[in-house]
Amino acid sequence: MNIFLQHNPTKLYFGQGQISQLSTEIGTKKVLVVYGGGSIKQNGVYEDVMEELKKAQATIFELPGVEQNPRLTTVHRGVDICKSQEIDILLAVGGGSVIDCTKAIAIGAKYDGDVWDLITRKVPIESALPIGTVLTLAATGSEMNPISVISNWETKDKLGWGSPLVFPRFSISDPTYTFSVSRKQTVYGIVDSMSHALEHYFHRTKNTPMIDGFIESLLRTAIETGPKLLKDLTSYDHRETMMYISTTAFNETLSNGTDGGDWATHRIEHAISAVYDIPHGGGLSILFPNWLEHVLEDDPSRAKMLAMNVFGISSEGKSDLEVARDGAKALRSFWDSLEAPNRLSHYDIDDTDIELIIDKTFIKPGVGVYKELDRESVKDILIRSL
Ligand code: NZQ
Ligand code: ZN
Fold first, then answer.
1. Which pLDDT score is estimated for 377?
2. In Å, what is the CA distance from 191 to each residue of 94, 171, 218, 232, 239?
3. Which protein residue's CA is at the shortest distance from atom 14 of ligand 1?
4. Which residues 6+ apart lie within 8 Å of 169 measured at CB?
5. Alpha helices, DSSP H only, in the chain?
6. Counting ligands in written order, which one lies closest to the CA of residue 158?
7. C-alpha angle 271/327/241, rounded to 5°?
8. Cβ density class 271-296: b for 16+ within 10 Å, e for less
9. Ligand lying closest to the C-alpha of residue 162
10. Contact, 166 vs 103, CB < 8 A?
11. Mean pLDDT of 213-241
């Protein structure tokens, strides 16, 4: 293992009814409530949040309309409100897009220039407003991590960034708040959570049996729970399991002691989303198995472990490469069984912009850790995905 520091300051209130903690967490502050396209007004979450904030005697401001793949223009709107109204704390109520937008508003509110300078790392992030979250969709892990992903439609860039200053101070995860998530969006959440676990798994650090076993257990649980949840979208037990999986898959636990894993698939997916604005989980379900098939040809060792320990594939009478290939097929078949997209043509994407997508993938240097990809490798993965 590598040396590591574990320090996650987010207070996680997990379980039914935990919204009752909100009034104490917010108190009498000036709060900006950030939310998306209106699902919280249909499923009762908005009323629960407002009731708690009124109980706390908070002064409430609202920023509705955060897009899926949140946009810089919306971040600007939020920053303007924070500055003009002297907001004390931000409350994100929604999925990853709402939380990520809120994180960007938090740093923009404390900076005199354009927040894009901070997101692009032109200027270091030195301060942020505090944020809390009420999670309504199990997918990204943003409720307990310091990461955010923002799209700039002027430059067609979708950039991930992070700062310890934007760890949520608290997050409220009530599985009943995810009952209304559509089947399609639930599938995307399962795929995104599994991808986070898988990308952590493909690391190069030696002697990591505990963390490898933890990831394998998380993946087996997702494989067992996902199909049951899709048959019964309002099952508390299955929503609860998926919610805990998605938070744990990306709250830094799975990188303890490793080099962090290989996030090339996320880099390529963000590049595609920057150009075509597709759902994140849908992009990953297309790309990850093709990334896996690409890298296992050079080194089948971890794909073989995945095949045996997660999918229960026997190695008897087979070469390492054959077992690894069977593992990649098993992952593809599982996601196919959930009806997750498996080709870019699902989103009407052909090879027209392939060079542009490759350019966007390399917007930051260094793509991949398990295998460092060059432009040709990314092209190979994209062509396999068409
Ligand atoms: O807009 P609203 O009304 O909130 O509706 C949303 C949206 O239409 C809906 N939804 C959310 N909760 C619901 C609900 N519908 C019914 N009932 C509910 N309870 O679901 C749709 C998708 O929401 P969104 O927040 O976009 O999904 P997700 O959580 O998958 O977030 C995706 C974004 O997060 C980024 C992605 O790139 C993408 O921009 N990521 C962020 C990460 C992070 N911060 O750590 C890591 C991820 O890898 C990812 O890149
Ligand atoms: Zn993701």
1. 97
2. 18, 22, 13, 18, 14
3. 181
4. 9, 10, 11, 25, 89, 130, 131, 132
5. 22-26, 39-42, 45-56, 72-85, 96-108, 116-119, 183-201, 209-231, 236-249, 264-276, 280-296, 301-309, 320-337, 354-361, 375-385
6. 1
7. 75
8. bbbbbebbbbbbbbbbbbbbbbbbbb
9. 1
10. yes
11. 98
Which tokens go with 339? 């009806």
What ligand has the least distance to the C-alpha of 143? 1
| Spacing, Cα 255 to ligand 1 middle (Å) | 23
Looking at residue 234, its pLDDT comes to 98
**Interatomic CA distance for residues 358 and 253, integer angstroms:** 30
List Cα–Cα distances, 177 to 21, 39, 230, 250, 361, in angstroms. 15, 10, 16, 20, 34
Is the shortest distance between the CB of 36 and ligand 1 below 6 Å?
yes
Q: Structural domains in the chain?
A: 11-178 (3.40.50.1970), 183-385 (1.20.1090.10)
User: Ligand 1: does its nearest atom lie under 6 Å from the Cβ of 69?
Assistant: yes
Ligand 2 centroid – CA 90 distance (Å): 23
> CA dihedral defined by 353, 356, 361, 362, rounded to 10 degrees?
160
Q: Which residues contact 157 (CB under 8 A, 6 or more apart)?
A: 151, 274, 360, 363
* Apex 192 CA angle, 187 and 193, nearest 5: 100
Establish whether residue 177 lines the binding site of ligand 1, counting it when its CB lies within 6 angstroms of any ligand atom. Answer: yes
ipTM score over 0.95, yes or no = yes
CB proximity list for 5: less than 8 A, separation 6 or greater: none
28: CA distance to ligand 2 center in Å?
35
Neighbours of ion ligand 2 (CB under 5 A): 192
Q: Could you tell me the pTM of the whole model?
A: 0.98
Q: Which tens digits make up the pLDDT trace of 81-140?
A: 999 999 999 999 999 999 999 999 999 999 999 999 999 999 999 999 999 999 999 999
Mean pLDDT of the chain: 97
Q: Quick one: average pLDDT of 201-224?
A: 98
78: number of CA atoms within 13 Å, CB side?
Answer: 38
Question: pLDDT tens-digit profile of 137-170?
Answer: 999 999 999 999 999 999 989 999 999 999 999 9
- CB of residue 280 inside a 6 A radius of ligand 1: yes
With tokens 């998605």, the residue in question is: 246
